[in-house]
Design goal:
Number of strands: 17
Shape: globular
Number of helices: 9
Strand content: 25-35%
Bound molecules: zinc ion
Mean pLDDT: 95
CATH topology of the largest domain: Aminopeptidase
Distance between the termini: 39 Å
């Protein structure tokens, strides 16, 4: 990956964007893609769309969600402690003792507290963490003092910047789905620099909002764009850690390329094209079987209007929705290359009807 691309990933990882509060990351995305887009729009929901060939009648939609899981302050007690709800599905066990940013008038440092382990009895079932037993301590000594810097409704995100692990692995918060956003930006840049795509194909690269709470941004933007086909690029739960049982949930390894989802979420023509282009380009990929509804933006994209020929690519990720997600940077580059190759072969003549 180019240094500038890695720098952009670091920036968006360091920038908070819990669902409903995506604006700072949206601004960085706009800045990055502006030179490569024929048209750049932001809609009333907050979705950002970078377009190549806006006049083309055959439209392809790339959905990479900009939002991340987080928290929101719902109560401040007399002693200045903040109580909070989750935004999206987080792993409560990983939150205790974390440093957080509370996004009040400006970002305020806080820590997630709960009762001390020394006060637990051996039989105490409360060792099992429960969100309602946690609070955020910003150091304020009263509600009045806390209210000077935060309020009910302030968003909260966990600290954590991108750092390198061994091999070509990286750890960071919110790779889900800042990685998908980076891939979209890079696909746009690469295709634009090489002269674009087929003139009859409109490429709509989106940073969508509110995926973690039900793909609301993808739903409204798919309606507006009315694409014929599209891909959702998101993170997939890696199954290559100790005691994972492939027999239970399948296999998905870091470093072996993105997973192409097989099942009802993927249009058969899209699936075949993704596989054949990966093989032609010599790009590694894995297969992931999803029998029910896709937990990605592809779900709403597919069911938009009269139906959209959709597909899902998942970049393997360990420890999803924790403060320390782990991704392989080779998989990120492979996914960029695969989506670029996929877009290059799109023509207005392709019939996506399953036969
Ligand atoms: Zn995601």
């Amino acid at each position: 990956m180019r240094d500038e691309s890695l720098k952009f990933l670091k920036e968006i990882v360091a920038t908070p964007s819990p669902s409903g509060f995506e604006q700072p990351v949206a601004e960085l995305f706009r800045e990055y893609v502006r030179p490569y887009a024929h048209r750049l729009t932001t809609d009333v929901m907050g979705n950002v769309t970078a377009i190549i060939n806006p006049e083309a009648s055959m439209r392809f939609m790339y959905a990479g969600h900009m939002d991340e899981v987080g928290f929101i302050v719902h109560y401040i007690d007399d002693d200045g402690f903040l109580f909070f709800s989750t935004i999206g599905g987080t792993d409560v066990a990983t939150e205790i003792g974390q440093r957080v940013w509370v996004h009040g008038k400006e970002p305020i440092l806080g820590v997630v507290g709960r009762k001390a382990i020394q006060t637990f009895k051996a039989s105490d079932t409360s060792q099992t963490p429960w969100l309602m037993e946690l609070w955020i301590d910003i150091g304020a000594s009263s509600r009045e003092e806390a209210l000077k810097v935060v309020e009910v409704g302030s968003a909260v995100t966990i600290h954590g910047e991108l750092a390198a692990l061994q091999g070509n692995l990286a750890v960071g918060r919110a790779f889900d789905n800042k990685v998908g956003l980076l891939i979209g930006a890079e696909v746009l840049r690469c295709l634009s620099e090489e002269g674009g795509v087929h003139p009859g194909v409109g490429l709509y690269i989106l940073g969508t909002v509110q995926e973690e709470i039900g793909s609301r941004g993808a739903m409204t933007s798919a309606f507006n764009i009315a694409p014929r086909t599209g891909l959702a690029i998101d993170m997939g739960v890696a199954m290559d850690y100790p005691r994972a049982r492939a027999e239970d949930q399948g296999k998905l390894d870091l470093g072996k390329g993105p997973a192409i989802t097989q099942g009802a979420n993927t249009n058969p023509v899209v699936f075949k094209l993704l596989k054949s282009v990966a093989e032609k380009e010599g790009l590694p990929y894995q297969l992931q079987a999803v029998g029910s509804s896709s937990p990605t933006d592809a779900r709403v994209m597919q069911q938009n209007r009269g139906g959209v020929a959709s597909g899902v690519l998942s970049v393997p990720l360990r420890y999803m929705h924790t403060p320390s997600e782990v991704v392989c940077l080779d998989d990120v580059q492979t996914t960029i290359d695969l989506v670029c190759a996929y877009c290059r072969q799109l023509t207005p003549e392709i019939d996506f009807t399953p036969r």
